[in-house]
TrEMBL record:
Family according to the record: Belongs to the binding-protein-dependent transport system permease family.
Lineage: Bacteria, Bacillati, Actinomycetota, Actinomycetes, Kitasatosporales
Membrane spanning stretches: 12-33, 71-96, 108-131, 143-163, 184-206, 242-263
Key words of the record: Cell membrane, Membrane, Transmembrane, Transmembrane helix, Transport
Domain of life from the UniProt record: Bacteria
Occurrences of domain ABC transmembrane type-1 (ranges): 72-263
UniProt cross-references to PANTHER family, sorted A to Z: ABC TRANSPORTER PERMEASE PROTEIN MG189-RELATED, ABC TRANSPORTER PERMEASE PROTEIN MG189-RELATED-RELATED
Recorded coiled-coil stretches: none
Keyword Transport: yes
Keyword Electron transport: no
Name of the molecule in the record: Carbohydrate ABC transporter permease
Membrane-related topology note: Multi-pass membrane protein
Length: 277
């Protein structure tokens, strides 16, 4: 006689906790998006939780007609450059650390890990002096170089853990085929470590896109301003254009959010391999 199937018992506390978490996450998004569809006067009169009675895209129009496209282009250049620099250097440094297991290589790896304990705020004055001496102040390169440098330690940690999972027999088989180190790196290590490299790229892109300290200290002119500084355009001494400000926030979120959606699987799988063997 077959036993009747037992349905799993409902977990009401988990359901309530999920509903509360959904409200916590959804409410700020609702306030942000609904505010962008209102006029400034309507937003101030009705409040942030009100529904837009007469939706309008005037806030987006004002944002796109301002210097926002320039800020978006500058941020894209900084983000793409930082991601490219960190991925290229991170792959080469990590491959060297994994393949050379001597004392010098391990000390080199430990020095990189020390970078995880150094906050950018603690060394912003030396960075400013170095950038000034190199005549790079108020340029996009002044933002790109330190941003990439501070993303390298965690990137090397992720890539070293990923590359250590590659079997030694694969290296030996390629060596028997006459492959050199460059060929092993390009034809075997890079394809196998694609998840870790994608993780490094997304992580660096997120840091560069949301970076505020380096653009604030190392740039000055409007033509070299990035999105995080460009939001100040909608905040005046005696007034704040909240709908336009939130419209600029929404437009600045979309590109990096799309990039995250496209690489989310590689990001998760790459982070799972941080521990290595």
């Amino acid at each position: 006689m077959k036993r009747p199937l037992r349905l799993p018992r409902a977990n009401y506390p988990a359901g309530v906790a999920t509903a509360i978490w959904l409200v916590i996450v959804a409410l700020p998004l609702y306030i942000m998006v609904s505010a962008t569809l209102q006029t400034r006067e309507n937003y101030l009169n009705e409040g942030p939780l009100s529904l837009p009675t007469e939706p309008t895209f005037d806030s987006y129009r004002r944002v796109l007609e301002s210097d926002f496209p320039t800020y978006l282009l500058n941020t894209t250049i900084v983000t793409a450059s930082c991601a490219l620099i960190v991925m290229v250097l991170g792959v080469m440094i990590s491959y060297t650390i994994v393949r050379n297991r001597g004392r010098v290589s391990q000390r080199f790896f430990q020095v990189f890990l020390l970078g995880l304990a150094i906050p950018a705020q603690a060394v912003i004055v030396p960075i400013y002096l170095i950038i000034t001496e190199l005549n790079l102040y108020d340029s996009l390169l002044a933002v790109i170089l330190p941003t990439a440098a501070f993303s390298l330690p965690v990137s090397v940690l992720i890539l070293v853990g990923t590359m250590r999972d590659i079997d030694e027999e694969m290296y030996e088989s390629m060596a028997l085929d006459g492959a050199g180190q460059a060929r092993m790196l390009l034809q075997m290590v890079v394809p196998i470590s694609r998840a870790g490299i994608s993780t490094v790229g997304v992580f660096t892109a997120l840091n560069a896109w949301n970076n505020f300290l380096f653009p604030l200290i190392l740039t000055q002119s409007r033509e070299n301003r990035v999105l995080t500084l460009g939001l100040y355009d909608y905040v005046g001494e005696f007034r704040v254009d909240i709908p336009a400000l939130l419209a600029a926030v929404v437009l600045s979120i979309v590109p990096i959010f799309v990039a995250y959606l496209l690489a989310r699987r590689q990001l998760i799988s790459g982070l799972m391999g941080v521990g290595g063997k």
